[in-house]
Specification:
six-stranded mixed β-sheet; 7 helices; globular
Length: 367
């Protein structure tokens, strides 16, 4: 496929989901610089479907995606991608303002219930007196979802080229000439779904970057034999200093909720962040930590206002941004892909996302 309609740069959840929605009506080629798609942020995600996660700009996309993840079209998947979990937002006395802000921001949009947290997390230390339960939160089978998007993309005729990086591109004859390390490709449009590399891809195409910043997040897997049960809620700090969730019997996935600026790279955890995560965890519950079984890091990429960026660049014809999805690209992928496809085709929004306003996601807000 050397003359596709659309070249998508990036094979993570962003590129895979948008490609799957576009491929039924266009020839689409996906370029992935790594030997496997989803190697970076998608493959390292500790993901869940949580309507409050990401704030008010992300919530409409998350809410609209919920039914599509819980009961997918049988042609897409014969099993759901969501498993009930719940989130317990906790805080100490000084976090009352953060609790009230959460309830005020999402009141009427998301089911939130003030609770006494000690009854939901055995072993919770006594100073954690504030609690808000978000009962609708679910775990996401990230690998299954990503593979379902790629499988649909290929079934509709899309092509994935692995270990193929975009080196440069230039506008030519109403379209684009894309140079890769495996030859040149002519296309009508380029979709920038390159995650942490989104600004680099724009520069390589002669397009001004818009300030997509990669931020490193550290995650550790702890062995905690005293953990009461594997079906406890995801526990999230109202002050955004940690969250942790059970990952099977006697194991916890934990992050210090760090956001360290980083160049685009194969991210690795730093020992200081690992130590900080454990210290914060031990200040919350009295479950002894027996071992650190795994540790890893990934890059979550944000625009300057932390909202995703979907739409054509106003100064570069045929260059479409689908980036800046932070840590929310997996839980929003069904709605975001439908929105991106409608914007790219210049069509009305489909019924599943009819109530979403695309204007806050336009790249024009940065120009």
């Amino acid at each position: 496929m050397n003359r596709p309609d659309i070249v998508i740069v990036g094979g993570g959840i962003a590129g895979a989901s948008l490609g799957a929605v576009l491929a039924d009506r266009a020839s689409v080629l996906m370029l992935e610089m790594e030997p496997s798609a989803g190697y970076h942020a998608t493959g390292r995600a500790v993901s869940f479907w949580e309507e409050t996660y990401g704030g008010l700009a992300v919530q409409p996309l998350t809410t609209a995606s919920g039914p599509m993840l819980a009961a997918p079209d049988p042609d897409f998947s014969d099993t759901p991608f969501l498993t009930p979990r719940r989130t317990l937002h906790i805080g100490r006395a000084g976090d009352a303002a953060a609790r009230d802000r959460l309830l005020e921001q999402f009141g009427g949009k998301v089911d939130l219930v003030p609770v006494e947290p000690a009854g939901l997390v055995p072993g919770l230390r006594p100073e954690w007196t504030l609690g808000v339960l978000e009962p609708g939160v679910c775990d996401i089978d990230v690998a299954a979802l990503h593979q379902a998007w790629l499988r649909l993309f290929r079934r509709l005729g899309g092509e994935v080229r692995l270990a193929t990086a975009l080196r440069r591109a230039e506008a030519r004859d109403g379209g684009w000439r894309v140079e890769t390390d495996r030859g040149a490709i002519d296309c009508r449009m380029i979709v920038n779904a390159a995650g942490a590399w989104a600004d680099d891809v724009a520069r390589a195409c002669g397009v001004a970057p818009i300030g997509i910043a990669p931020l490193r997040r550290t995650v550790v897997q702890l062995r905690v034999p005293a953990m009461p049960a594997a079906d406890l809620p995801l526990v999230m700090d109202l002050a955004s200093q940690f969250y942790f969730k059970p990952e099977g019997e006697g194991r916890v996935w934990l992050t210090p909720h760090d956001e360290e600026p980083s160049p685009p790279c194969d991210a690795a955890p730093e020992e200081m962040a690992v130590a900080e995560a454990i210290a914060r965890f031990e200040a919350v519950v009295d479950w002894p930590v027996e071992a650190v079984e795994r540790k890893w890091a990934g890059l979550r990429s944000f625009s300057r206002d932390r909202a995703p960026v979907y739409g054509f660049d106003p100064a570069a014809r045929g260059f479409f941004w689908f980036a800046g999805q932070g840590g929310f690209g997996i839980q929003t992928s069904p709605a975001a892909a439908l929105l991106g496809a409608a914007l790219l085709r210049g069509e009305a929004l489909p019924p599943q996302i009819m109530g979403i306003d695309p204007a806050p996601y336009s790249p024009a807000r940065f120009r």
